[in-house]
Specification:
It comes from Parasedimentitalea denitrificans. This is Efflux RND transporter periplasmic adaptor subunit. With 415 residues, the protein is of the alpha+beta class. It is 31% helix and 33% strand. The protein contains 6 helices and 22 strands.
Length: 415
């Protein structure tokens, strides 16, 4: 009784050996051929002799092929990014004072120049009046300084006349040397008096300029008490509360501009050369909203961590429906390329794991072409890497390998 299972195991083992190891010889024997003349065909075979092709020509495998021609398509660069306000500014105080205006609440629309925070004047107005008084005083000294200069010039002229007369009389022996020396000293003193008068006039002018600067500084300090919106936008935060003590750098309010918004993404270095400033682009937000705009900025410097380049797309947002920080799928138009549109089921892998398709050449022999996916659509995929015209096997491609003769049946792309 134990002999039967043993014989059964031997028969099963022999059958599996013939079906797996000696499959080609067994198939040749079934067709009435000499097993030693069977031909092995695989994706790794680079060539098949003409004799082998002739031998198997009568046993071609039937496949269905699609006659495909390449077409020019737009090849968009697909990114993931987020929306960003066109401008966002944290408006801060430049001086110390107490807020005396009622606060504006977040979400309020403001125009450029609208009041955000008004600060207490304190003693700044008195400082302004003091600076103006000093300016008036400095200006009142100008006539006096000019009069002193005129007086010094008149004294110089008198001294020069006396000195000239003394020199002439001294030549005739009518004036002593002491008298001549005295007139010369008077002339030099008059020259020094002019220099002193000119210095006094310059000092008066400098005093006027200093007083003007003091008035301007006092006016600027008063202007800093009124904090206004730098541009049209929305308040992203409440303005400073009434009675709050503001220091230089204290936040008054945050203003953002959303009527024009940016969609920001990062392009890998392998795709950056396909994008040009001014190219049309579209984006689909996480909520399903679709927008269109233009590329307005493309970074020239890569991020040192991710090795990607920042790209910005400007989008109109007049109705303020797009918010700052929303996730977006971005598609940027790029120069087109030629590609074939094929059924997704026609894609296959060769023994090296390359993605591609099997085609029928003019001799009705199977050939394998690696392809690159260009675009994925609901009714098919666009691939590049094929000739301008190709008969792509769409049914039976997984039952043949490169170099196998086939008997194709053709169908059109619409079928």
């Amino acid at each position: 009784m134990r002999l039967i299972p043993l014989l059964t195991a031997i028969v099963v083992t022999a059958s599996l050996y013939m079906l797996v190891i000696e499959r080609d010889a067994l198939m040749a024997f079934a067709r009435g051929e000499n097993p030693q003349e069977s031909i092995e065909i695989s994706d790794d075979a680079a060539e098949i002799s003409s004799e082998a092709i002739a031998e198997v020509a009568e046993n071609r495998i039937g496949v269905v092929a699609l006659r495909s021609e390449s077409r020019a398509i737009d090849s968009a660069v697909i990114l993931r990014g987020q929306t960003q306000a066109a401008r966002q500014v944290a408006v801060r105080a430049e001086t110390s004072a107490t807020v005396i205006s009622e606060p504006l609440r977040k979400g309020a629309q403001v125009k450029m120049g609208d009041l955000l925070c008004r600060l207490d004047t304190g003693t700044r107005q008195a400082a302004m009046l003091e600076a103006q008084a000093r300016l008036s005083e400095a200006r009142s000294r100008v006539p006096e300084a000019e009069a002193r200069l005129d007086e010094a010039r008149a004294r110089l002229k008198e001294a020069q006349i006396n000195n000239n007369a003394s020199q002439k009389l001294s030549e005739g022996g009518y004036v002593s040397d002491t008298r001549l020396a005295a007139t010369q000293a008077s002339e030099r003193a008059a020259i020094a008096g002019i220099a002193a008068a000119e210095t006094g006039l310059q000092t008066t002018s400098a005093g006027i300029e200093s007083a003007v600067a003091a008035v301007a500084a006092a006016q600027k300090e008063i202007d800093r008490l009124t904090i206004t919106a730098p541009f049209d936008g929305l308040l992203e935060s409440d303005s400073a509360e009434l009675g709050s003590l503001m220091q230089p750098g204290s936040l008054c309010a945050t203003v953002i501009q959303l009527d024009t918004i940016k969609v920001v993404g990062f392009v890998p270095e392998t795709e950056v050369n396909r994008i040009q400033v001014g190219a049309m682009a579209g984006a689909e937000l996480a909520a399903g909203q679709r927008v269109q705009g233009q590329v307005t900025f493309l970074s020239r410097s890569a991020d040192p961590t991710t090795r990607t380049f920042e790209v910005q797309i400007t989008v109109d947002n007049a109705d303020l429906s797009i918010r700052d920080g929303q996730t977006a799928d971005i598609a940027i138009s790029a120069p087109g390329e030629r590609a074939h549109k094929l059924p997704q089921s026609s894609l296959t892998l060769n023994n090296e794991g390359q993605l591609g398709v099997r085609v029928v050449n003019d001799a009705q022999i199977v050939a394998f072409y690696p392809v690159k996916l260009v675009r994925d659509e609901a009714d098919g995929v666009w691939v590049s890497g094929l000739p301008e015209q190709a008969d792509v096997i769409v049914v039976g491609q997984d039952f043949v390998v490169a170099g196998v003769p086939v008997k194709p049946t053709y169908r059109e792309a619409a079928q």
